[in-house]
Design goal:
Low-confidence stretches: none
Number of domains: 2
Order of helices and strands: EEEEEEEEEEEEEEE
Strand order of the largest sheet: 4-1-6-7
Oligomer: single chain
Distance between the termini: 54 Å
Shape: elongated
Helix content: under 10%
Length: 155
């Protein structure tokens, strides 16, 4: 009979709490505490994360580590951004804006209206395709490679 559990691996972008107190890694909790367990999302970028846990009994026999997936969409309305929304021209030089403007509940953006005649938007080293969703937590770099003869800069 399963009587206890313990968290063996914490999520990267969320906090697991039991009765509003952050869990302690590898601490044993009675199975009844599962009903008091919550996942606190702090900031954006949490939609897909995971953590590990084990189930145990009174004889201190433990299951293998089980992977639990967190699937919490923070923002239901994904802002749409065109590549030209990200560009500014300064003294004849085409620059990518230093940041994408979002609010505190935005976890992803959708890139729309890609026009290959204007150039290619490259995010995290890959060409963006029309309609592609980018999670803010995964946004590392972006470059606009223009098809016209102007200078571009990297974010």
């Amino acid at each position: 009979m399963i009587t206890k559990f313990k968290i063996t691996r914490v999520p990267k972008t969320a906090v697991i709490e039991i009765s509003s107190v952050a869990i302690v890694l590898d601490q044993e909790y009675p199975i009844s505490s599962q009903t008091d367990m919550t996942i606190a999302i702090s900031g954006t970028g949490v939609p897909y994360d995971d953590f590990g846990y084990k189930l145990g009994n009174e004889d201190s026999s433990w299951s293998r580590e089980i992977n639990a997936v967190i699937n919490a969409n923070v923002e239901t309305n994904t802002p749409e951004i065109t590549p030209l929304d990200l560009l500014v021209t300064t003294n004849g030089t085409l620059d990518i804006l230093p940041s994408i403007v979002t609010n505190s509940s935005t976890d992803k953006i959708r890139i729309v209206e890609i026009n290959p005649k204007q150039g290619n938007l490259i995010i995290n080293g890959s060409n963006v395709v029309d309609g592609q969703i980018i999670f803010i937590s995964n946004l590392i770099s972006s470059v606009f490679r223009s098809q016209i003869d102007v200078n571009t800069k990297m974010l």
